């Protein structure tokens, strides 16, 4: 019978909100109609039904902007196909700023809109008042206008997606609870519901607030937690214009939307509490939470001042509904790391209606094609550590994500909750030296060092700060004397076995048939020729290698290597990150320093670049390898954690003699950008191929054992399609770059900044950027002779562009 749950399907989707219905619709649209969607209660009954329904095309990153833009583009087609209205109204949106720094941030957002051909403008007081007559301009310093924004009815949008899916053959069953996802041999085999079992190839967890708990049943980590989220709806307001734009006042933590002759007022909370600490109630359906006055009254008072008509109109509804927020403000979209066929779309941080259609399409594409068709690295389920899906961690971090949703987001700003989880053996010694710590995957890492004996306090701004002054001094030491950074959080993976070399030859682009005591920098590619990772590999013995990855790549690299071991292959792969502490020591005097400390012959002839050996400093024996991420002569030393402080103290006895300064991640970032060195996740990811990044010299295509992705890489290189990575320097020493700024060539947008800093060596902002030219890559002479600018807060700033890094392009310092 048509209404009977089938015993088998190709795909089972769990959750009937906007995401589940979007995945179903987009699968069916591509011909995948053997799809079942299961909803525990009724469609939209979790979070979707009470969403405010704001639609804003311009988001904070490329991926979510693409999702949100698609969400508005599909509406007309969806309504025409299904006959179901979505309630979409393109009224535009006005955003006002109370603080000068907020206005600077808004100008950068207007710049960012140029990358996507989204109309966005800075507007003055008269136009703000004209477009939103109800607003009070008291304390306002400026505003912006985006005409393509608006609002939509979340329930109608979801029903339209569901109707479109049904019309193409998808079966949707409400009041059906999934009790278990069946996994056999690391592969999805089906789901067990309260009515029957369904065998399937793919499962999609789009169960919203319940996604984390459902994932845990199969050891799938999904870092989200529900939090209380408020809005109110007024009584009817006489003569309220129906075409009133959405008004956002981030500094007041409020937004305002016309809603059938009333105003819906939403809050970006400063006081946030988690919901469902002991699990979401079993009978939750179209439910709301109690209104707690002290959670919103401070923001409510600011709303009354910003839109004074609220002072004279009654409140029809105070609403408090739970929404899911994540530890890092990013969704989780993709396949679970260890279970084939288990897909996730969850934790969208109150942007589900705006991004739901686009996110659902992206996940459907992945399922259909067996791989993501766009760069989803930022939302990859494998990006987080296991503890980041734990209750205690999320009950602290998720509320902070909501609290920060309307806050000013300064460059380098750090989270405050759930800190000091992972500390290196040198943490306390570095803290005593004035370290200000940033956090990455729970690791506390010095971002910069304040003056000795002072409490390091961050100075957040879009201009030049004390932090920058400290970073410049650290860069100076690296360029002229000696600088040292704690490398202990870097990912370290041991690959061991009689087949270890052949295994790494297959995974890595470079030639791994190196002698013990030698190192090689290499890439791992995917089957499409995109960069999965970059890493350094040291051969410790004939059958043992140590792979060093960035902190953020460690888990993904470990997963990838483990998943590629073939049956019968003598290869063992294990994480050894915490088995050793590490220091990177760089600068023109670093050789003299380490030679004096160790007594070893570290001359260029005896110890060339990409070499490693054992030495002794003080009483401790350690591995030293000659590498540099700074563009200077440099070394990395690895020692057992118990002797790390002893080694550090021994080194620092020579601080005055060699001008040693401790280095933070801010300064290291600037050094590597000057040099043109890449960082995975900012300058490259799954979608870029080595030839686009200037690292095709790492691809040894004639190796006896071909590397994964070789043929795809060769084909892509022959096509010569961009974008290509370039080094970029502003010609004006005053403006700062932070990433995402549009790059112009003769006035036309050709790409964007991927990573940026301010350079001690050049006294200007330097950056890397992906640029696209009609006729493929261009040579250095042409680049330097043409007219380039970077948009910075509405101004086109003249820039120099080069295919090579600006600092020591001949590598004389690194190889000296």
Automatic annotation (TrEMBL):
PANTHER family linked: AMINOMETHYLTRANSFERASE, PYRUVATE DEHYDROGENASE PHOSPHATASE REGULATORY SUBUNIT, MITOCHONDRIAL-LIKE
Family designation: Belongs to the GcvT family.
The protein's name: FAD-dependent oxidoreductase
InterPro entries from the UniProt entry: FAD-dep_OxRdtase, FAD/NAD-bd_sf, FAO_M, GcvT/YgfZ/DmdA, GcvT/YgfZ_C, GcvT_C, GCVT_N, TrmE/GcvT-like
Record-annotated Aminomethyltransferase C-terminal domain positions: 727-808
Domain FAD dependent oxidoreductase central: 369-423
Keyword vocabulary terms for this entry: Oxidoreductase
Oxidoreductase in keyword set: yes
Keyword Oxidoreductase carried by entry: yes
Organism annotation: Rhizobium helianthi
Ranges of residues in domain GCVT N-terminal: 426-703
